[in-house]
Amino acid sequence: MLTSAWDALGAEPLDLWPEALRGDIEEVNARVYDCVNNGVYRAGFARSQRAYEEAAHALFDTLDWLEARLARQRWLMGDRLTEADIRLFTTLIRFDTVYHGHFKCNRRKLIEYPALWAHTRDLYQTPGVAGTVHLDHIARHYYYSHESINPTRIVPIGPRLDLGAPHGREGLGSGFPGLRTAARA
């Protein structure tokens, strides 16, 4: 869908699911969805200590795996942006603001993972992405709407994240043909 859904509206062609990488993308997507995207929810809404710890350990084991992968390459699939990076980004961009505290995913903050934090900033700085991210709205939604987790509905004032700081990932790969990061735009 991300590859072609907007073509009829005049969007520039962007193949985020190249045929040659589809098997690898699906393999990474499966682990990221189960342990990261859904993992934060499994930890946050756990009804027992055991369920929480299983979800949290799987989450952080996967973040460690992703950190090692992204320490040696710019994108999850190597030298090009794919759907796998976009799927991961949706959780990473919310991690320190929401999941670390609200969902008790607090072994480490995202900013304590150098490659994952740089990867998040790299995607955030991709043209058109920053305008879709409103961390104040995200925080208010999560902290205010989950009364069972946050009965006082108090929304924290932080953390303050510098998503515009240089990410330094340009040397790890070319990105996507025709796609420029904001730092180079």
TrEMBL record:
Domain GST C-terminal residue range list: 18-142
UniProt keyword Transferase present: yes
The protein's Enzyme Commission number: 2.5.1.18
GO function terms (MF aspect): glutathione transferase activity
GO cellular component assignments: cytoplasm
SUPFAM superfamilies: GST C-terminal domain-like
Listed InterPro entries: Glutathione-S-Trfase_C-like, Glutathione-S-Trfase_C_sf, GST_Omega-like_C, GST_Omega/GSH
The keyword tRNA processing is annotated on this UniProt entry: no
Pfam families (UniProt xref): GST_C_2 (PF13410)
Keywords: Transferase
PANTHER family (alphabetical): GLUTATHIONE S-TRANSFERASE OMEGA-LIKE 1-RELATED, GLUTATHIONYL-HYDROQUINONE REDUCTASE
Protein's name in the database: Glutathione S-transferase, omega
Organism of derivation: Rubellimicrobium mesophilum DSM 19309
Taxonomic lineage: Bacteria, Pseudomonadati, Pseudomonadota, Alphaproteobacteria, Rhodobacterales
